[in-house]
Amino acid sequence: MDTAAVPKTGDFFYGWDLLYKTIQAEVAKKSDLLVALVHFLLTKHYNFRCVGIGDDKTLPEEEGSELLPDSWNDDDTKYSLRYVHDKCLYLLLGHITEDALLINLMDINTKKVSNICVEPETLVAAVKGGITTLMPSASEVVERYRRELLDPVFTGNSREVTTQTTTSPRPSVSDPDPLRIGEPRRGGSFIPGGFEPRPFGFPDIGRGDLDPLGRGGSGNLFAFPSRPNMGPGPLPRFDPFSPLNPNVPGQGGINPDHMRPPNWNPDYYM
To answer: Contact 145/116 with Cβ under 8 angstroms?
Structure first.
């Protein structure tokens, strides 16, 4: 049961009066009521069962009870209560200081430990009466117990906490991309998000330099063909990289129309 979804008034404290009647004659100090409130929260709203006092870490065979055991508050400085839930053992330990009560909850199996510090003189107004008379801020105390003492340690299924997960279907090829600007590109090329579509049908030159993965075609230059005379459109001048062969047309020598260096003199070494 998810205690966060239950208001800490009315039915939430239903059953406290019965518990209080069983311990009323034993309550001697204000810290007793704060420990009894933890016990009420564990047994009613978290399905714990108390199996006695002490700090023995051996899992008992007994099922336990919703009642506080005998001598649970006999010690003037500490409390030691043992609980079971789903065949797991938990220890609830309390230590009384001058003006505070430090409570620890330990999962013996996982070794998880939580703690909370409360002030009996501030939170408990009386030791006789109903829950609102005993602890006017009982709702806030219970919420602190849940958040600081129980949630860090206990993850059992008595609290019916459900989480909804939504799985979005993968968009098909025909589904529009809400982040796309303009018409989709053809040919599977890539446009980095946030770039404007090609204006006025200009060629998509230079866009590949903006893609760190090298997709989207060529960069600032036109695509370099694998063979001369491949495909339509303007092509860069191509001089072969292999050794020159005078018997092959076009490989008789370096193209004489290459740009010459400034003040070039062919007879410089003559």
So the answer is: yes
Number of domains in the chain: 1
Domain-located, residue 268: no
Give buried/exposed letters for 100-127 (b at 16+ CB in 10 A, else e).
ebebbbbbbeeeeebebebebeebbeee
Question: Residue 63: its pLDDT value, please?
Answer: 87
Instruction: Check residue 155 and give its pLDDT.
Output: 77
Instruction: Please choose, from the candidates 25, 33, 31, 72, the residue with its C-alpha nearest in 3D space to the C-alpha of residue 50.
Output: 72
The residue ranking higher by pLDDT, 189 or 84, is 84
Domain span including residue 11? 3-150
**CATH code at 126?**
3.40.1000.30
On whether residue 246 sits in a domain, the answer given is no
Report the pLDDT value the prediction gives residue 101, as an integer from 0 to 100.
97
* 8 Å CB contact between 87 and 74: no
Q: Taking the chain, what is the end-to-end CA distance rounded to the nearest angstrom?
A: 102
Structural domain contains residue 142: yes
